[in-house]
Amino acid sequence: MAGFKIVALIASVTAQIGAFTALLLQLYGLILLWKIHEKQKKNTMLIALQNRRSYFLRKLKVLRQRRLRRRNRSCWFKPSRSDQWWIKMINGEAPDEFWMKNFRMTKESFLELETELKPYISPDPSSPNYRALDSAKKLAVTLYYLKDTGSLIMTANAFGIAVCTVSGVVVEVSNVISKVLGPKYLHLPVDENEMRKKVCEFETKFGIVQAFGCIDGTHVPILRPLKDPQD
Predict the structure, then answer these.
(1) Which sequence spans correspond to the domains of the chain?
(2) Is residue 141 within 8 Å of 157, Cβ to Cβ?
(3) Counting C-beta atoms within 10 Å of the first and last residue's C-beta, which end of the chain has fewer, N or C?
(4) pTM for the complete prediction?
């Protein structure tokens, strides 16, 4: 009887040792697979870095070749173009009514607006173009373009610059006005009470009912109806 117990005990221990050995082999296999995966991942990253390095080296070589082939710029400002009228305007040689006619504002208002926008639209001081547009001229180009029909060619000819320059300047200055000055000066009502207050203030000041503000300054003549003209 004791012999059977010893045999059973030995068999149980042997089975446990076998199970433990199998577990160790599985763990070793998992570790080996993880090492293989990490090695493959590392090799893939090295190949990607080498490809990227080769790509940048090729791009750098192309840029160097382009720089060697590039001709020196003959001029930054075409001699045939002139902006003498704007120089006279900004230097105070033109009558004050010219400001209202060309920019829809007085010179004082223009300079005040230019002061607010100057930190955002001033040219890069490190630019090699010594005739780069300053903040005042950029603002003048934008206002001149927006004052009536908005012709790029007319604006370019008036300020002695290229049409593409006018397009870029108008977009740049308009974005700055929208992002910087818009939140500063345009305040919409946040609730019904504030809206009613603004409607009353607008009616008292301008005689227009059911409105708390207006956009743009375009005047369109209309014929009011005889019945309830205020509505």
Answers:
(1) 12-70, 83-185, 188-216
(2) no
(3) N
(4) 0.57
